[in-house]
Write the structure tokens for this entry.
Amino acid sequence: MTDVLWNTWAGTHQARPRRTAAPNSTDEVAAAVASAAEEDLRVRMVGSGHSFTDVAVTDGLLLSPASLAAVRSVDPDAGTVTVEAGLPLCDLNDALAEHGVALANMGDIAVQTVAGAVQTGTHGTGRDSGGLASQVLGLEMVLADGSVVKCSADREPDLFHAARVGLGAFGVVTALTMAVRPAFLLHAREEPMPLDEVLERLPELRADNDHFEFFWFPHTGNTNTKRNNITEGPARPLSTLQAWWDDDFLSNTVFDRVNRLCRSFPSLVPGVNRISSRALSARAYTDVSHKVFASVRDVRFVEMEYAIPAEHAADVLREARSIVDRGDHRVSFPVEVRFAPADDVWLSTAHGRDTAYVAVHMYRGVPYEAYFADLEAVFTSVGGRPHWGKMHTRERAYLEEVYPRMGDALAVRDRVDPHRRFGNAYLDRVFG
């Protein structure tokens, strides 16, 4: 047994694998999988560790994609990029910008590996553009028998539809081909707004903006709204000083210190949230898309997120506020609410329905179980789907009810990995 210990970013799970390897090519991944089969070891490929679940944990062979980080090709005319699994999204953004193209949408953190983000269903917010997996056009994978396959909507389509958000259960993804569009600017408008007004105006706010989201401050009736819209420009980014002050010093350094204080003295939380939410002021700026979509998140936390039918968003938020107002919990982190259109990815949280994402957080080291359990009951009452990479308690029986194509996906898994070479405890729970 190796002494190497691998941890998730938030410290929620750790792995002590039998062996580790950092393959330099797809062929080396295939050789590693074949070698693990000879030793009867299960295999998992990790990413940046930004999942809060144990989706990447193994006691067998742990593969690192750090050396699989090349941009193989960018074709602006075709609107495609082919990139290896281990490239961080932030580096992909820079490479795309050099070719005058960009992803149509992305989440608010960009340090994950491309494959890790896609495989767990990472998403942003958007009226017309969905999560990362919906932008994937093809996958290169190493299957359990060591063979290398390429799949797309036209080539091995069932494997493609199942494995786009595949949790690494169908094979080791070594490269992805993704759709890109011409680079674009976003005009960002951030503005405080009462929660009641946001919920009343949700249909309008969603319909009138390319990308809308909001953050609700528990123990208050206050939110901060974000409206990002495509614009011809010109670019008017935040000044270096304002960006540092708002997004580095206040949102990371000060926020972390405040949360440490609230962890020691939970009774301070409601008052701190009221002060924080009232201190917000509106701001607007225009910048290249990936700089608006993503921001630096240095404060460590634990997170649960559910994808619910968009039409239930207002009622779910009102019920969440009622739960917090009961006084059983002290919640110092804002609740993040985003939206996505329906997609056709079998195991995507937005499969087949317009979706609202409700994400709840707790500062690392603060008990979160009771708060998460109370809200999970609300989310599941409307058929919510848990984010595959974030904390939840759902098992296969429930998930089969909310994913109409899960049976088809699991049939593909039986075909390509009948002996569960890529299994682990988490997959045993969610897939059986």
Summary: The two ends are 27 Å apart (CA to CA). The chain is about 30% helix and 25% strand.
